[in-house]
Amino acid sequence: MSDQRVTHVAPGCPLAEQFFARATGPQAVGESVSPTELAACLDQAATILSQAHAPLIYGLSHSSTPAQQAAVALADRLGASIDTNASTCHAPSIVALQVSGESTCTLGEIRNRADVVVYWGSNPLVSHPRHVERFVDAPGMLVPRGRQDRHVIVVDIERTATADQADIFIQVQPGRDFELAWALRSLVQGHRLLQDTIAGVPRSQIEELALRLQSADFGALFFGLGVTHGPVPHLQVEALLRLVTDLHRHTRWVARRMRIPGDVAGADSVLCWQTGYPFSVHLGRGYPRYNPGEFSANELLSRNEVDAMLVIGTAGINKLSTAALKTVRRLPTIVLNPPYVTPPWKPTVHFETATYGIHRLGTAYRMDETPLPLRPILNSSLPADHEILQALLTRIQG
């Protein structure tokens, strides 16, 4: 770093390089706003939210713990619905683990112990570029030779870059992950398969895979967004989680979700310990109510059940349905975004905010729910998300 610029990012990662290029470039400085202009924007935003009968707070996946806490406090004061980007990506996984539980551990333990690694519905060489390098190729305490001591299995609907580097690739038919997982469960529990082919996979290949899973000293199953689609996606994830539980009769296995970039895991965690629920929470009755679908942002907007919206980071907003986005464009909206991100519509009030981990300290959660401190490396005159949200709460309470 020199002259308030990031000149080099190491070790290299395409996602990190892209992030630092945007977050530290000239466009990240933002336009200077006078205290008077900022106060006027805060007054306007507070008026919109306080006059709303059914406000919605959405986003939070690129904030930090202080901002997420402030958002929950604001939602509680307003009696608003609050939802995170998880409702449009790993929501089926969260619902599934609430039903079946989750045998899991930190990524560090996987690196040190796992001799069998399964990627199911995930292509980490593209979605998480350094994941294979850090948790498959890297040596660990019980796998001192790294990749040479590990057996890598990929289950997906098509051959991917990660599948090309795997020891075993299982090609499952789209939308039939549940059947394959249930067949593996049957074998692990000592039953026989009667069909020659299940979910497009030959019986001999499924039997070989089941034996490989049972013979692991320590196995780790990473599942991605590929299994969160289909008619009943939460049942597909539940089948994988129950497969991991069944494997505990023979050896040690854990499961981990491959979360999207950002702090979506942190948003889930903060909502859990503030409201008791991870996403799609309604606070309109003075206490938290949780019901994915009924209180999810996409469904609320699609049904026109929102009359004002506060968006804390527009990353992932394009995953909302066409009907939901149509509602967003006609609502009074308040948007908090770093200056290098342009909202896909013109909000009523737009706050440019500093970036956590670049301009502001904070806390973010890794994909294994491990909290990590964020330290600033550059200066910025822009306010942070939590400062804007706390100022709004102060005005509304007043």
Task: Calculate Rg over CA atoms.
Answer: 23 Å
Q: What summary fits the major beta sheet?
A: 7 strands, mixed
Beta-strand segment tally: 16
Oligomeric organization of the protein chains: single chain
Low-confidence stretches: none
Q: What is the level-2 CATH architecture name of the largest domain?
A: 3-Layer(aba) Sandwich
Number of helices: 15
Strand content bin: 15-25%
Strand order across the largest sheet: 11-10-2-1-12-13-14
CATH class term of the largest domain = Alpha Beta
Structural class: alpha/beta
Helical residues, percent: 25-40%
Taken from the alpha-carbon principal axes, the silhouette is globular
User: How much is the average pLDDT?
Assistant: 93
- Measured between the Cα atoms of the first and last residue, the distance is 43 Å
Outline the structure in words.
By secondary structure, this protein is α/β, with parallel strands linked by helices. The chain folds into 2 domains: 34-88 and 262-397, Rossmann fold (3-Layer(aba) Sandwich); 91-257, Dimethylsulfoxide Reductase, domain 2 (3-Layer(aba) Sandwich), CATH 3.40.228.10. 38% of the residues lie in helices and 17% in strands. It has 15 helices and 16 strands. The strands form 4 sheets. Strands 11-10-2-1-12-13-14 form a 7-stranded mixed sheet, with helices on one face. The longest helix is centred in the first third of the chain and has 17 residues, at 35-51. It is globular, with a radius of gyration of 23 Å. The two termini are 43 Å apart. 48% of the residues are buried. The model has no long low-confidence stretch (mean pLDDT 93).
